[in-house]
Amino acid sequence: MRADTADGGMRAAVIHRYGGPEEFRTETVPEPVAGPGQVLIDVTLAGLNYADLHCRTGEYARYPLPAVLGADVVGRRRGDGRRVAALLRSGGGYAQVARAEAAHTVELPDGVADEQALALLEQGATAYGALTLAGRLRPGETVAVTSAAGGVGHLAVQLARELGAGRVLALASTPAKREFARSLGADRVLDPGDPELAERLAAEPGGVDLFVDLVGGRVLRAGLDALAPFGRLLSVGARGGAEESFSVDELADRSAGLLGFWLQHVLADRALFAGVAERLFGLAAERRLVARIDRTVPLSGVAGAHRALAGRETMGKVLVDVRRED
Ligand SMILES: NC(=O)c1ccc[n+]([C@@H]2O[C@H](COP(=O)([O-])OP(=O)(O)OC[C@H]3O[C@@H](n4cnc5c(N)ncnc54)[C@H](OP(=O)(O)O)[C@@H]3O)[C@@H](O)[C@H]2O)c1
To answer: Which residues line ligand 1 (CB under 6 A)?
Structure first.
């Protein structure tokens, strides 16, 4: 069913309090108003990101309630009708109209479909920025990626190959996810739940030069122990729970580097952000980088999509078609 509004409002998936996925309501709410330096986008698709789960529970960014979550959208820019994608640092994605900073908006080339552009902008820029800006990947190096079938991870596996990694190791929790990671170019796949994960990783000939971690905890620890001399342990994401701490001595003993990455620092630099997006869209147009769309749900399906993401059921990107609410 197509969702239409007669009164000038828009349809959106709204939460009135922080909590579980059951808090989402599909409602008619006023359209946002653009301020200086901002644009309005008639949204076709919104994306889910892992951080949305924490926004929903109030553990991450606490937006004023009632709130519309969602950090990335694709659609048509009001005014010139151009096809654009945008990252929304204040939420507002799961809605028919989104307000975005002009500096966080990019125009889409004809050769890149809406679904691909949306899957690439937040998660692709994270994977690319982590590998290049933070990880400083060099050709021939051995790279490991955790959550390798996820939204960021499956792009990181492909980009590591594209950037000339010598070997790519992929960690994913199910046989289907590991098979998927292999199909993307991973040379070796591992199960992060394997009690012998640390030993298996440490047995990698020559060690791991760059360990890109999206999980934290014991997997991060196993990554440190698997590093080659002068290797880098790069923290990009964490699931919460027990976190590992390392002493400076442990790093020095391995000649290891401990790094972090936050996409915000790419977004804060318009030229850098635009350049990263252009590179990603260029690779997508040539089909050298292909985002997997796990599912596309209607507005009323946001709660179920959150459950699926939290339940580790998804591979690739989860989308919301905000024009539908059947
Ligand atoms: N630093 C940044 O700027 C930045 C930007 C974007 C995203 N991130 C981070 O990157 C990570 C990946 O984000 P994403 O949006 O692409 O999500 P995602 O990887 O698609 O998220 C789902 C995957 O996380 C893995 N996972 C591991 N432990 C889990 C647990 N206890 N519960 C649920 N899932 C678990 C699962 O893979 P397995 O089943 O294979 O373990 C699951 O399929 C997140 O930590 C996110 O916060 C960071």
So the answer is: 49-51, 122-123, 126, 147, 149-153, 172-173, 177, 192, 214-215, 236-239, 261-263, 309-310, 312, 314
Q: Which H or E run includes 299?
A: none
Question: Quick one: how far is CA 36 from the chain centroid?
Answer: 28
Range of the domain at 218: 123-265
Q: Which tokens belong to 159?
A: 């980009």
**What is residue 62's predicted lDDT score, i.e. its pLDDT?**
84
Weakest mean pLDDT among 18-22, 105-109, 217-221, 309-313: 217-221
pTM: 0.97
In a domain? residue 285: no
Q: Which pLDDT tens digit goes with each residue over 63-92?
A: 899 999 999 999 999 999 999 999 999 999
Do 259 and 296 lie in a common domain?
no
Residues 48 and 101 in one domain: yes
Asked if pLDDT for residue 242 goes beyond 70, the answer is no
Residue of the nearest CA to atom 34 in ligand 1? 312
Residue nearest to atom 46 of ligand 1 (CA): 237
Nearest CA to ligand 1 atom 25: 147
Closest to 63 (Cα-Cα) out of 110, 16, 30, 98: 16
CA distance 318 to 247: 38
Here the CATH number for the domain that contains residue 216 is 3.90.180.10
